[in-house]
Structure formats: structure tokens, C-alpha cells
Design a protein that fits this description.
The protein has 50 residues and is mainly α.
Length: 50
């Protein structure tokens, strides 16, 4: 399972698995940033449902 900068250029994998940037890269951000990231990810996925 390759890890590195290439992962950041492939949002399709993150979106498909429902992972945030921090979860993919193994970081634990503060709760506020986590909530903001969750909202941001939801807004990115919204057009896909239509």
C-alpha cells in the first residue's frame, strides 16, 4: 500500500472510502478542524448525490 504525496492528488480514493485527509495521513486534528473537515467533505460529496 503506497503512501506519499501521490495520495493527496487522488481525492477519488478518499471520497470512495469516506476518509478525510487527516485519516488518510494518520493525523489527529483538533475537534474544530475535524468538524470543519467533515462539513467540507460533505459539501464536496453533495453534488455526487444529485
Amino acid at each position: 500500500m503506497p503512501t506519499g504525496g501521490a495520495e493527496t492528488k487522488r481525492p477519488s480514493r478518499m471520497r470512495r472510502e469516506g476518509l478525510s485527509f487527516f485519516e488518510v495521513h494518520g493525523r489527529q486534528p483538533p475537534a474544530a478542524i475535524r468538524a470543519l473537515a467533515a462539513f467540507h467533505n460533505a459539501s464536496l460529496r453533495a453534488p455526487d448525490r444529485q
